[in-house]
C-alpha cells in the first residue's frame, strides 16, 4: 500500500496530553485521590487490629478487649467499603468527563485535518483511531485509570505499614518484590512497540476492507477479486502475527509475576519467625506484616493487569493524539487577509506523493467576475489544478494565491469565504436540514437559511417537510433525492458566500430528469461570482469568457472561444470536430 499512516504522538506529547486532561478537571481528580487514600488507610487497620488481638490473647487479656478490637475491625471494614465506593463513583465521573474531552478533541482535530492528509492516509486509519482507539482510551480513563489509582494507593500504604511495624521486615518485603520489577521492565521494553504494531495492523485491515467495499463494483469489473482477497489475507495475517506477539509478551509476564508474589511473604515468615523466637518481635507484628504482604498481591495484581492495559491504551492514546502532529499547511492561520479577489497561479508544479509530475509549470490569472472554462483530455491535470486553486492541497512548487495570499494558508474558516469547490458528490449529513446547512455557516439565522434555500429553489419542498428546518435527514430520517441533495449542497455554497466557485464536473453526471432543476439553481448560485469550470462539454466552454486548454500537465492555450478557434490550435480542432461532425445538440466530452 502506498498510503502513509497518520502520525503517532511521542511519549512526551502523550504525557503532556494526560497532564492536560487532569488539569482540565483538577477538583474531581483531587477528590478521587483524597477518597482513595482514606479508603486505603481504613483498609490498613484490619491486619494491624488482628495482630493486636493475637498479642492481647497471648498476654492473657479478657474477652472484652478482643470484642472491642473485633468491633473496631468491623467498623474499619465498613468505612473502607463506603469510602471505596464513593472514591469509585468520583473516579468514574472524572473518567467519563475526560473521555468526553478526548472524543471532542479528536473530532475537532479530525475535522481540521487537511483533506489531502485524510486522502493520503485513507479513511480506514482515521476510522480505526476514532473508534477502537478512542474506545480503548475511554475504557482506560473510565475503568482502568480509577482502579489503578485505588490499587496504587493501597499498595503504597501496605508497604509503608510493614515498614512501620518493623523496618527490617519492610526491607525484606521490598526485596522480595524485585523480581516483579525485572519482569515488568522486560515487558514494558517490548510492549509499546508490540501494541503500536498491533494497532497499525488493525488500521490496515479496516482500510483494506473499507476500500474493497467502497470500490466493490470496480473490483468486480476488473476481476480484481482474487487480488483484493489476497491483500485482505495478508493484512489479516500481519494482524494475527502482531496479536500473537503481544500474547507471547503477556504469557511470559504474568506467570513470572505470580511466582514473585509468594517470595516476600515467605521471606517475612522465615526471618520474622526467627526474630520472634529471639524475642525481638511480637507474634502479632509478624502476623500483621505477613498479612500486609499477602494482601499486597491483590492490588499488585490489579496494577499489573492495568499496566498491561495501560500499555495498549497508551499506544492507542498516542495514535489518537497523533492527529495533533499532522503538519498544518505552510503558514496556515497566520497569513494576512486576502487583498482583493484575484486568483494567481504562478509556476505551479504538482506530483501526487512523490510520483511523476502531473502539473508541470502552470501560470494563470483569474480576474474577479470572470467565467473561465478549463478543457482538455482526461488525465491532463484539470482536477488537480482545481484542487490546488481550492486550497485542498499545496503545490509542490510555485504558488496559488487569492488576493496575494496563498490559498492553502487560509484555513477552512477564511477559505470558504474566498473559494469553494463544487463537485458532483453531494452529501446529505445525518442531522436536521438546519444542521446540514449550518455546516457552511455555523452562525446563520433561520431567515438566512430560508433565503439560501430560496436562491436554489429548495424552499417549497423544505416547507412541506413535517418539521421544516428541524426535519432530520439521512439514514432513519427523511430521505432526499439526488436533486434535493444537490440543492442543499448549493444552498451551503450560498451561505458560505465565496467570491469564487470552482466547478469540477458539477453538472457532468446530472440525472437528466433533474438536470434542468439543478442547472437553474446552479445559475442562481453562480450569479455575481468568479467561476472556474472544468468543462466536459464544449458548449459550456463556448459560453465562458475565456477558455484554458490543458494538455499533459501544461496550459497550452488560453483565450476567448473566438480567439482560440481563429488560432487554429487544439481547441479549434476539438471545436470543429464537435461542431462539424456531430449533429446539433449532441454533447461532446473533451
Ligand atoms: P483530469 O481532471 O484532467 O482528468 P486529473 O487532474 O484528474 O486530470 O489527473 C491528472 C493525473 O494525475 C492523471 O495522470 C491521474 O492519474 C493522476 N492522479 C489524479 N489523482 C491522483 C491521486 N489521488 N493519486 C495519484 N495520482 C493521481
Description:
One of its GO terms (molecular function) is ATP binding. Residues 31-312 form the ABC transmembrane type-1 domain. It is a multi-pass membrane protein. Keywords: ATP-binding, Membrane, Nucleotide-binding, Transmembrane, Transmembrane helix. Pfam families: ABC_membrane, ABC_tran. This protein folds into 2 domains: 11-325, ABC transporter type 1, transmembrane domain (ABC transporter transmembrane region fold), CATH 1.20.1560.10; 343-579, 3-Layer(aba) Sandwich (Rossmann fold), CATH 3.40.50.300. The protein is elongated, with a radius of gyration of 34 Å. The chain contains 19 helices and 12 strands. Helix content is 65%, strand content 11%. The strands form 3 sheets. It has a 6-stranded mixed beta sheet with strand order 6-9-10-3-11-12, with helices on both faces. Strands 2-1-4-5 form a 4-stranded antiparallel beta sheet, with helices on one face. It has a two-stranded antiparallel sheet with strand order 7-8. The chain starts with 10 loop residues before the first helix and ends in a 9-residue tail after the last helix. It has helices spanning 11-24, 26-58, 63-112, 115-121, 123-165, 167-214, 216-221, 225-277, 283-321, 382-389, 411-418, 433-438, 446-455, 459-464, 482-496, 512-526, 538-543, 561-567, 570-581; strands spanning 343-351, 357-366, 371-375, 397-402, 405-406, 419-422, 431-432, 472-473, 500-504, 530-534, 546-551, 554-559. It is an alpha/beta fold and 590 residues long. It binds adenosine-5'-diphosphate (ADP). Adenosine-5'-diphosphate binds at residues 352, 355, 358, 376, 378-384.
Amino acid at each position: 500500500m502506498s498510503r502513509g499512516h497518520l502520525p503517532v504522538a511521542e511519549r512526551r506529547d502523550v504525557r503532556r496530553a494526560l497532564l492536560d486532561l487532569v488539569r482540565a478537571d483538577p477538583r474531581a481528580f483531587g477528590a478521587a485521590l483524597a477518597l482513595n487514600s482514606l479508603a486505603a488507610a481504613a483498609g490498613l487497620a484490619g491486619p494491624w487490629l488482628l495482630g493486636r488481638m493475637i498479642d492481647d490473647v497471648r498476654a492473657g487479656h479478657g474477652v472484652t478487649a478482643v470484642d472491642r478490637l473485633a468491633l473496631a475491625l468491623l467498623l474499619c471494614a465498613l468505612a473502607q467499603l463506603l469510602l471505596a465506593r464513593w472514591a469509585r463513583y468520583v473516579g468514574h465521573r472524572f473518567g467519563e468527563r475526560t473521555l468526553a474531552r478526548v472524543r471532542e478533541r479528536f473530532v475537532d482535530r479530525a475535522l481540521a485535518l487537511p483533506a489531502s492528509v485524510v486522502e493520503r492516509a485513507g479513511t480506514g486509519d482515521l476510522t480505526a483511531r476514532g473508534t477502537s482507539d478512542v474506545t480503548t482510551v475511554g475504557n482506560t480513563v473510565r475503568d482502568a485509570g480509577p482502579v489503578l489509582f485505588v490499587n496504587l494507593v493501597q499498595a503504597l500504604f501496605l508497604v509503608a505499614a510493614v515498614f512501620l511495624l518493623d523496618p527490617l521486615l519492610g526491607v525484606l518485603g521490598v526485596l522480595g518484590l524485585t523480581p516483579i520489577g525485572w519482569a515488568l521492565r522486560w515487558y514494558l521494553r517490548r510492549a509499546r512497540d508490540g501494541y503500536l504494531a498491533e494497532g497499525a495492523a488493525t488500521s490496515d485491515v479496516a482500510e483494506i476492507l473499507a476500500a474493497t467495499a467502497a470500490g466493490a463494483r470496480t473490483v468486480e469489473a476488473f476481476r480484481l477479486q482474487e487480488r483484493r482477497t489476497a491483500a485482505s489475507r495478508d493484512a489479516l495475517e500481519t494482524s494475527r502475527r502482531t496479536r500473537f506477539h503481544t500474547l507471547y509478551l503477556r504469557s511470559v509476564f504474568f506467570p513470572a509475576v505470580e511466582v514473585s508474589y509468594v517470595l516476600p511473604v515467605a521471606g517475612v515468615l522465615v526471618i520474622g519467625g526467627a526474630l520472634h523466637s529471639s524475642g525481638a518481635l511480637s507474634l502479632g507484628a509478624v502476623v500483621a506484616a505477613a498479612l500486609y504482604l499477602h494482601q499486597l498481591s491483590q492490588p499488585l495484581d490489579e496494577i499489573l493487569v492495568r499496566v498491561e492495559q495501560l500499555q495498549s491504551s497508551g499506544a492507542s492514546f498516542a495514535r489518537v493524539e497523533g492527529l495533533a502532529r499532522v503538519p498544518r499547511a505552510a503558514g496556515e492561520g497566520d497569513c494576512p487577509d486576502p487583498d482583493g479577489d484575484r486568483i494567481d497561479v504562478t509556476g505551479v508544479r504538482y506530483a501526487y506523493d512523490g510520483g511523476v509530475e502531473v502539473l508541470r509549470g502552470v501560470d494563470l490569472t483569474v480576474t474577479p467576475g470572470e467565467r473561465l472554462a478549463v478543457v482538455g483530455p482526461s488525465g491532463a491535470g484539470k482536477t488537480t489544478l482545481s484542487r490546488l486553486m481550492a486550497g485542498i492541497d499545496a503545490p509542490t512548487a510555485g504558488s496559488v494565491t487569492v488576493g496575494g495570499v496563498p490559498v492553502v494558508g487560509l484555513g477552512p474558516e477564511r477559505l470558504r469565504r474566498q473559494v469553494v469547490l463544487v463537485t458532483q458528490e453531494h452529501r446529505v449529513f445525518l442531522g436536521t436540514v438546519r444542521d446540514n446547512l449550518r455546516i457552511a455557516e455555523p452562525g446563520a439565522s433561520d431567515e438566512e437559511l430560508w433565503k439560501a434555500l430560496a436562491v436554489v429553489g429548495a424552499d417549497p419542498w423544505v416547507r412541506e417537510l413535517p418539521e421544516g428546518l428541524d426535519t432530520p435527514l439521512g439514514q432513519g430520517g427523511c430521505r432526499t433525492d439526488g436533486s434535493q441533495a444537490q440543492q442543499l449542497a448549493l444552498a451551503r455554497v450560498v451561505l458560505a458566500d465565496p467570491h469564487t466557485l470552482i466547478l469540477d464536473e458539477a453538472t457532468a453526471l446530472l440525472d437528466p430528469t433533474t438536470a434542468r432543476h439543478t442547472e437553474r439553481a446552479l445559475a442562481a448560485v453562480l450569479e455575481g461570482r468568479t467561476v472556474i469550470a472544468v468543462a466536459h462539454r464544449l458548449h459550456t466552454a463556448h459560453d465562458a469568457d475565456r477558455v484554458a486548454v490543458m494538455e499533459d500537465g501544461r496550459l497550452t492555450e488560453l483565450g476567448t472561444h473566438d480567439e482560440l478557434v481563429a488560432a487554429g490550435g487544439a481547441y479549434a480542432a476539438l471545436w470543429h470536430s464537435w461542431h462539424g461532425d456531430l449533429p446539433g445538440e449532441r454533447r461532446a466530452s473533451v
